[in-house]
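Justification of resources, computational component.

The compute hours requested in this renewal are based largely on the per-chain cost of generating structure records like the one below. Each record pairs the submitted sequence with a full structure-token output. That output is archived, and it is also reused by downstream analysis tasks.
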Amino acid sequence: MFERHKGGDNALLVQLKILSEPGSDADEFTELVESAGADVSGFISGSRSRPDAKYFVGKGKAEEIQQAVQANDVDVVIFDHALSPAQERNLEQIFQCRVLDRTGLILDIFAQRARSFEGKLQVELAQLRHLSTRLIRGWTHLERQKGGIGLRGPGETQLETDRRLLSNRIKQINRRLDKVKKQRDQGRRSRRRAEMPTVSLVGYTNAGKSTLFNTMTGALVYAEDQMFATLDPTLRRVDIADAGPIILADTVGFIRQLPHDLVAAFRSTLEETQQSHLLLHIIDAAREDRADCIGHVNEVLAEIEADDIPQLEIYNKIDLLDDVKPHVDFNEDGVAKRVWMSSKTGEGQALLLDALKAHFGKNFIHCWVRLKADEAKIRAQFFELGVVLKEEDPGDGGFFIEVSMQKHRLKKMIQDSGRIKSIAEYEAEFGLKNVG
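The structure output for this chain reads:
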């Protein structure tokens, strides 16, 4: 579509400190660019009280960047900021090379990482939304009518045609994503019917979510020491002793200034987080700015309306810290608030499982159930659910079985027998007995 400057990936990075905005991390910005596959040839920094309307950086700084572009044979100038379409166009005219802002950079990384059909659609949707505001900067002949049978309406300019084609493609992607969303909703309904709670791993990018997911589930999800290694959500069942099965969901990582187009495009994926019963907030304990990362993650959770879901903070990568052993921090009510562990070495994983057991085990019961001889149907249901741990012969033709299951499910099974209205009555008549 675009007649743009062609070139490679030799990148010059630009980062300004805007006094009215929170500061950015230069190392994180560099890591982002390297994650996109670019070679960093230089880094220019500065400060301003507020962005310049025309060039963002001001005319003097723009000339400094232009000189660096020429001296280092730069292919692309990448800004660690969100630029307006006009600012990008003005800067490209000065530099005579590509200009990319933070949003475009993150979208490029996502495009490289997406593997599933849904992930690719979501990334394309975000890219098209971002591109639709920048069509004008790609053309030098906007007055010209476009030729070609079937490619234009009466009197359409090239720009109008491109906008129409983009609009049509966005509508098409949204229809496809709606179908995927319906499939996801069906899967969630199935899990709700099975009464299995969902636990989502959330956190800043490269905090170790996928490594922990693989450690807990035995899965082989792609996990690398790079930003946004995971885009496509993966769900696995994990059985917690004396708490029952849960569904563990690995999700996309968050970052400072996460583009709104990206959040909107990935909303269907992020619904896994919205529908969760518990969030495991994975935190890189070795990062000096971990408090800022926690704040940014909570901001995104608020944006997707998932900030009211209970959280358990997982301080990961303690193997990179000196004199920090696996341990659990409890609040004043004795509830686990933080688990310090290493998903890479496995240290502290047992503490995490204990915390999950304490959280979900409150609605769990481990007991002996005594059944009459004519209640073989109920016995069969226990075995179908896979909750029977042991069975003994009471000597009267009935059944005596040890079960571990959700309390409400046991109560429903007892009530469905048609004779007993509560667990208390059942306990009085048949000898329901808790274990330990």
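The longest strand covers residues 39-48. Residues 1-7, 137-152 have pLDDT under 50 and may be disordered.
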